[in-house]
Design a protein that fits this description.
9 helices
Length: 185
């Protein structure tokens, strides 16, 4: 009779609001903190996320995909289960089959599905995402080419480069001096 209010309703709608001009990372992280690793909270959050994925405003859907990616990176297995759930994969397919959805939104969703299918391939409990990916490929959806991850310079890379530069300088100096330490003219 009475619907119990979803504790994530207001926060997820605020985080993915059509009034935003960019992602609000403070709110995104607040959602991640609230969900944590609790499977019931993940389920409640994804009830609202499924609704937001069907929103007519392209920015709302894009912000929602960003929220899902952040939840995946910060909240663990319970969120992975929700992303690979029948409800969420059906919602993704429904958005992709909607002719009125902007191509940028479809491309972002296809890229996400491709990445998630790759990330989840080792876990048989998450196989529904890979099935969804395979079905969409069979329906001739065009997935973006996988992007090669950018190499992030680490301190050791920087140190190695400095050492290489120092060696080159020492070599150049040694070639410009004779054996007794006098500079060649």
């Amino acid at each position: 009779m009475f619907k119990v209010p979803n504790p994530f309703d207001e926060l997820v709608k605020k985080t993915t609001s059509e009034m935003l001009t960019a992602e609000n990372w403070e709110l995104i992280m607040e959602v991640c903190d609230r969900v944590g690793t609790d499977s019931e909270r993940a389920r409640q959050c994804f009830e609202v996320i499924n609704e937001r994925m069907l929103h007519r405003n392209a920015n709302v859907v894009l912000y929602t995909v960003t929220l899902v990616q952040s939840l995946l990176e910060n909240c663990g297995q319970s969120v992975k289960q929700e992303v690979s759930s029948r409800a969420f994969t059906t919602t993704l397919t429904r958005v992709l089959n909607d002719k009125s959805v902007h191509e940028k939104v479809k491309s972002r969703i296809l890229g996400s599905i491709q990445q998630w299918a790759f990330d989840f391939r080792q876990d048989p409990t998450l196989s529904l995402m890979e099935e969804t990916y395979t079905k969409l490929r069979a329906q001739r959806f065009v997935f973006p080419p996988p992007q090669k991850p950018e190499k992030i310079s680490t301190a050791s890379d920087v140190e190695r480069q400095k050492e290489e530069d120092d060696l080159q300088l020492a070599l150049a100096l040694s070639l410009s001096t004779d054996g007794a330490g006098a500079v060649k003219q």
